[in-house]
Amino acid sequence: YGIPLIPIYKNTIRIQYLKLKGLSQKLEPVFQIGKNGVTETVVEQVSIALDSHELVKLNVLKNCDFTAKEIINDLAARLNADPVLAIGNKIVLYRMSDKKGVQHVL
Q1: Rounded CA gap, 39 and 79, in Å?
Q2: pTM for the complete prediction?
Q3: Contact of 27 with 20, CB cutoff 8 Å
Q4: Which whole-number Å values give the CA distances from 53 to 23, 37, 66, 92, in the listed order?
């Protein structure tokens, strides 16, 4: 009660978003985005990670020309993922996996 069930992003409703945000606090970044920004290699590797884990945290290095807030929506669109948060130099993305044997976070 008190939390509306309205879509926040493409596939995520507010209560799910809050759960994802909480789960992301325990995650360690598995990728770093550096000087070259978001390359096709980064997109491919993050896609593989999302297929295996659904919730992925990335670190934007200080030598990157863009901030996490500038990167998150572009990266989410390219991956067909939901942006969970961009705080400081951290980005968290969620995408439900169709892969068999994956433990779903939602």
Answers
A1: 12
A2: 0.87
A3: no
A4: 12, 23, 26, 12
Q: Going by DSSP bridges, is the β-strand pair 55-60/31-33 parallel, antiparallel, or unpaired?
A: parallel
User: How many other CB atoms are there within 10 angstroms of residue 85's CB atom?
Assistant: 19
Within 1-106, residue ranges assigned H as helices are 14-24, 40-53, 68-79
Nearest to 56 by CA among 88, 35, 81, 89: 81
Beta bridge partners of 92: 57, 85
Count H helices, E strands: the chain?
3, 4
For the chain, 106 residues long, give each residue's pLDDT as a single digit of tens: 344 444 556 666 878 888 999 999 999 999 999 999 999 999 999 999 999 999 999 999 999 999 999 999 999 999 999 999 999 999 999 999 988 888 888 8
